[in-house]
Amino acid sequence: MGRLVVVSNRLADPRKPAAGGLAVALGESLQRTGGLWFGWSGNIIDEPGDGESRLHTRSSGKVTLATVDLNRSDYESYYEGYANSVLWPVFHYRLDLANFNTRYLAGYRRVNQLFARKLKPLLRDDDIIWVHDYHLIPLAAELRALGCTQRIGFFLHVPLPPSLLLAAIPQHEWLMRSLFSYDLVGLQSEADVAHCIRYMTTESQAVLKDDQRLEGFGASVQVKAFPIGIDVEEFRHLGQSQDAVDTFERVRSEYSRRQLLLGIDRLDYSKGIPQRVRAFRELLERYPDNEHSATLLMIASPSRDAVNAYADLRQELEGLCGAINGDFGDLDWMPVRYIHRTVARKRVPGLCRASRVGLVTPLRDGMNLVAKEYVVAQDPDDPGVLVLSRFAGAAEQLKDALLVNPYDTEGMAECIQNALHMPLPERQRRHRALLENITRYDIHWWRESFLQTLQSLSTSASAA
Fold it and tell me: Which run of H or E residues covers position 403?
């Protein structure tokens, strides 16, 4: 394999302890090939000085980290605007929250062109380029326009919605046509692949071949599901750390007379957090045996608090939690413990292990790796139960979880009740099956299967 070049909106130093599983997984291949990781620096500059952002490079072992700054106008239109106010809500099926401001698209295209211009001089002829996520969908088209002929793959970390929702995006034809400049498009689930193929064949008149290859606009692109996993061994090791062990023992001691239900999310409208809290209230109303017994620990870390939709969500959630505690709480029992802070990652395995039920119930999610972390953290002799939304990408793999519809409040309450009272043999059987799947299809499998598939394909450099 030639040198690996990773392109993403933000990048992380794969050698730093705080780097996430994705950074570590990509870092392995980058170190092996002496690779390059390119993206936005995270810096916002008011005046570019020479009229365009400068390129910054530094080394991390054998890896070169290359970044560019964004001026404030581009940041607002590309990142806050098109990426997070158009693509994020639409891709999560929330047309009602999208802001189709026409200037956003111009900024999105401008930044992708900037990335292409700054990246091209750094490329070698035999490089393999891997572009990540919705921020950079048109990057391959911009690179091809500059004459790049390298193999280029793309992976979308969020869901891809049905074709009619995609068609609501102004100039969606241009956006989706740009995917034909890639050799491989990786998606989280088979459902996402079906949505992509449906759009391309109906809206773009592409021709579908037998191997999930689409031909159109003088190019050929392979579309395939690569469900992302976690670094199982890294998370197990994290669970053995003193911080995780201390957290487990402290939580177990504090809730020794309770059955703990755990939800850990970013405060985002895609995560189904209010629906989860309403289901917990329904649980207490329909199954009063859970009073003074079940406690919901709801951790919702801050996320774009300045945006109205998120501020409204926080207010709604705080009202729901307060109402449950006011209506059901007692001097020695608080039904809901709500935390609007980021909990250190090193404490997460201990929290998961101490919880009888893990509630991962998004309205829509690309994958949701918290579900997989919850399973890995469990004691196999006395495991907790994963309650998982059927609308999370992980549901295609984790069929031995209790799958729920987060829009069905009564159904979720019933499912949680079943989880709280599930016999030990069934809990063990489900956990074994889930853990086997998660271990087999971990993040290293994801990386290797994507790169091997990309290497096997001929280039789409002739794409329009």
Answer: strand 402-404
